[in-house]
Amino acid sequence: MFKEKSIQGDISSFDFAGLARENVADMLPYIPGKPILEVQEEYGLGKVIKLSSNECPFDLPPGLGRALARAAVGSNRYPDALCRRLRAKVAKKLRVGEENLIFSNGAEEGIRLIAQIFLNHGDAAVIPAPIFDAYSVATRLMGATQIYLPLKDYRIDLESILLACEQNANVKLVWLCSPSNPTGDILKTQELDNFLVRLPQNIMVVLDEAYAEFVTDTAAARTEDYLGRDPRVIGLRTFSKAYGLAGLRVGYMVAQPGVIELVNNVKLPFNVNSSALAAAEYMLDEHKFAQKHVALVVTERQFMRAELCKRGMEVPESQGSFLFVKLPVGVKKNGVDIFKTLLPKGFIVRPGTAFGVPQYFRMSLGSREDNLGFLHELDSVLA
Question: How far apart are CA 291 and CA 350, in angstroms?
């Protein structure tokens, strides 16, 4: 009979961190926008308006529920690992080849996959800042060095990125975001063209376009335009924003077939579940929903920016579904204070601490009613 072995000493003191991959123990977990239910329970509120996570403010169409019910019947089977039907529909919409697409569990999985494929220990990646922290997390997890470069007038500074790439032979990857989160600025085709011409040939470029559907500026760079021009550009898109499927997690990459093949080598076999696939297919067909959402955002970002600027706030122009707000000079509050003060009033915004800039806050664009309610409460906070 085998004698059961046990670890000597206090189990609670076992050094898991000492066995973990380098950097993991020092990393901080992602802190999402505060959930509506948590705020309702904490403050005894009925209605809570969440303007912190850039989600769709509309209820999804009833036909989606029926599509999900049909998909659920077949849940005893694994989903299509290559998302063939969805891939064909997206390819037709973007006018790209199906071989240029691969799907992921939200765009953030795509970020992780790109880092896993292209970054080794000792490599470096350039990250503009402030920006979505997923690029930093993915880079650090692979043991690569993060080269942070500040924005210039709320815009990604391509000149400083070129200089960093010229001065550091270890740079393998440049993370770009357009519209950029949290500022909402875009990269324009001409400036990205000039950047790519001067960028060393052995550096890959990721263009995260999670908010692409909200862009109205025709000068904006689009990944699909580079498929026949520069093989280094990898685009990221999502169904979480314009299509309102944040809770189902469907993202995809737009890239050269050689990149798609590498992604297929390392991604989980069934990373997009059957319900998510069915929902994404349905929402692509039900295109009027996304059009309605985009129209609301375009109208409200113009209205809200004007209203906030009238109140003395600094708000850069945005092409996303959100605004990045700096409080007026002389106000003895910062973005964290606004976040905390608005919570018991039933409004959730994103404090700038999430991006390393506590003097700011980011707010999603809701309905006109929600936005007016927000302005009323903000005025009372600043009075």
Answer: 25
List, for residues 288-304, the tens digit of each pLDDT value: 999 999 999 999 999 99
Which conformational region is residue 363 in: left (phi greater than 0), alpha (psi within -120 to 50 degrees), or beta?
Answer: beta
Query: Which of 263, 285, 307 finishes a domain?
Result: 285
Residues 58/244, Cβ–Cβ less than 8 Å:
yes
278 with 322, same domain: the answer is no
Q: Which of 262, 285, 308 finishes a domain?
A: 285
Q: How confident is the model at residue 272 (pLDDT cuts 50, 70, 90)?
A: very high
- Structure-token pair, residue 163: 């200089």
| Same domain, residue pair 143 and 210 | yes
**Dist. CA 304–CA 371, nearest whole Å:** 7
Please give the structure tokens belonging to residue 314.
Answer: 């600094």
Strand partners, 324: 362
Amino acid symbol at 359: Q
Considering only CA atoms, give the Rg of the chain: 22
352: nearest Cα among 363, 342, 341: 363
Tokens read off for 355: 């991006």
Render pLDDT for 124-153 as a digit per residue (tens, 0 to 9).
999 999 999 999 999 999 999 999 999 999
Contact between 360 and 325 under an 8 Å Cβ cutoff? The reply is yes
Instruction: Work out the burial of residue 258: count CB atoms within 10 Å of its CB; fewer than 13 is exposed, 13-18 middle, 19 or more buried.
Output: exposed
Helix, strand, coil proportions of the chain in percent (round to 5)? 45, 15, 40
Q: What interhelical angle do 257-266 and 106-118 show, nearest 10?
A: 100
Element containing residue 172 per DSSP (H, E): strand 171-177
Phi, psi angles (nearest 5°) of residue 188:
-95, 150
311 and 245 together in one domain: no
pTM over 0.85: yes
What is the bridge-based pairing of β-strands 233-238 and 251-254?
antiparallel
Tokens of 224: 């699909």
CA distances from 90 to 201, 213, 267, 312 (A): 29, 13, 20, 42
